[in-house]
Amino acid sequence: GEDPGREGLIKTPSRVARMYVEMFSGLREDPKIHTKSVFTEKKYDEIVLLKDIPFHSMCEHHLLPFFGHAHIAYIPNGKIIGLSKIPRLVDMFARRLQVQERMTQEIANSLNDALNPSGVAIIIEAQHMCMQMRGVEKKKSYMSTSSMVGIFRSDNKTRKEFLDLIKLDKKF
């Protein structure tokens, strides 16, 4: 029932095409681009944590957005990564047709492959529009996924330290 010749719709197909190129730009990127900025650091072997990394992605099942934030930690084993590379890695994997579970594992695997750390821990929390706008319409629901690799998986004390750190209130 829409008039495709209506002023507001004439350029919509080209706008949507440009939007999809931008939103799915992660498909054309290799994660190694973001993980090659690695530095030798033999003396530091404690948790490195970057938390509350915002992202947005697109559910591959419904073509609706999901968005949230990621908490990512690793324990160096002789190598550290440039700090800005972690959010770039999140954005790259988020800019694909995606499911949150796979995205969580892809980020963990990329960091683990690049750094060979003692461990990697990731928690992603996101709101899914396919849950809020349609179907069950649960407006306040959100999903949490995790990936624990190495010592974060095998040592409960290290896992608990990570979980406690991401709960800390910001003091700045």
Describe this structure in words.
The structure is a single chain. With 172 residues, this protein is an alpha+beta fold. 38% of the residues lie in helices and 30% in strands. It contains 8 helices and 7 strands. The strands form 2 sheets. It has a 5-stranded mixed sheet, with helices on both faces. Strand 2 and strand 3 form a beta hairpin. Helix 4 packs antiparallel against helix 5 (100-115). The N and C termini lie far apart (53 Å).
**Count of separate DSSP helical elements:** 8
Indicate the mean pLDDT: 94
Output the radius of gyration.
Answer: 19 Å
Order of helices and strands: HHHEEEEHEHEHEHH
Portion of residues in helices?
25-40%
Give the amount of beta strand, in percent.
Answer: 25-35%
Overall geometry:
elongated
- Count all strands and give the number: 7
Class by SSE composition? alpha+beta
Strand ordering within the main sheet: 5-2-3-6-7
How far the N terminus sits from the C terminus, by CA atoms, comes to 53 Å
Low-confidence stretches: none
* Biggest sheet overview: 5 strands, mixed
